[in-house]
Amino acid sequence: MTRFRLTIEYDGRPFVGWQRQANGLAVQEAIETAIERLSGERVTVHGAGRTDAGVHALGQVAHFDLDRAFNVDRIRDGLNAHLRPQPISILEAVPVDPGFDARHSATGRCYRYRILNRGAPPALETGRVWHIRTPLDADAMADAATVLVGHHDFTSFRSTFCQAASPVKTLDALRVERKGEEIRLVAEARSFLHNQVRILTGTLKLVGEGKWTKADVEAALAACDRTKGGATAPPDGLYLVAVRY
Amino acid sequence: MTRFRLTIEYDGRPFVGWQRQANGLAVQEAIETAIERLSGERVTVHGAGRTDAGVHALGQVAHFDLDRAFNVDRIRDGLNAHLRPQPISILEAVPVDPGFDARHSATGRCYRYRILNRGAPPALETGRVWHIRTPLDADAMADAATVLVGHHDFTSFRSTFCQAASPVKTLDALRVERKGEEIRLVAEARSFLHNQVRILTGTLKLVGEGKWTKADVEAALAACDRTKGGATAPPDGLYLVAVRY
Q: Taking a C-beta distance cutoff of 8 angstroms, is the pair A10, A59 a contact?
């Protein structure tokens, strides 16, 4: 048996998310099908992050096992050939130690959220950014973000469907930067709760609009009550950028 | 009569190009239809650059005239509403002097060409970059580009269907830069010949691959013969970035 680690880029729009579901095609399933066509083996692909429907990845990581020997050099290009024309690209496919687990061995995950902040809607970035017409104060958002960094109970900022045993997580970084018409949030943590980055984004948007202050964000965090956090930002602007091991 | 100047972003993939044609929908036509729906007037929209099928724009400029008075503030948003769901976005719509002509008043045009230079195909940028697997030497491309800058007969680098009266143009700038996996060419001139940026890109690609030297590019330029220039790069990676007045 050989275990392989994949690094994967995908456009989340046509998929029901990373994880296999009854209601449509999942990224996981598309890759499993490509592996079967290439190798003849029916495998399960385990991903580092379960991105939701419409969420994109620049560097998702996953692992799977093949029983029979296989030409390692052919895997990346072979899978990409079988994945066409789906918007999934295997950036790297390498054999790894059988002890490697894409999800459990991860020591850090980095997400990016892109907001297009201008009057006109996107033509080239439809489905890949959150379009907000109201001018946002990115500096105020960046300042308010600092109260969220650290070890906290994030109940106010996780989906009510979140299945994690504990709402307590350590958010290592949450930066907000404006580059022209685009505002980018970058969030880093060992792991995230369900919808956490999207709810943090939806909350900081209120600060950017001037509807909330930094103190309001602090109060929402302290409340440990989902109804006190901001709305969940749409999946369009979210990217799983990288997974650290 | 009021003349309006539009600044326009579009994804070129679903269109036959900027200019109205019999074989499919043109960007020009889509905008003219939106203007008619908004204002009730049938107009002609004149663009600064006639982008080909599949070529994108971040800042195409165009003008048109309306006979009747119209609430200027409503034009941008009204046109965008009528353009949906087509990937065309009006970034700005402002009244201008009736002497303004989007094409003839232009004093400079800036194009960008994006090459994705990595083994794996694009998942998020399909149709928006030229995917080249062979590692390219961007420094060699940048160096060879310098011989093309200036006042030259560009016969070797224009489409054989080019209708310009003269093949002599002044190329003000041609820069090549690598940013990670992406190589970007930036070309600036008062005006360009048909397919000029794409042929210049296809030629510099040969230098990046090590198949041509800077001297080969110089010889191709001097030959004034289209068969001596490189192949025409695909439209996917080309963007009309801005028009200067």
A: no
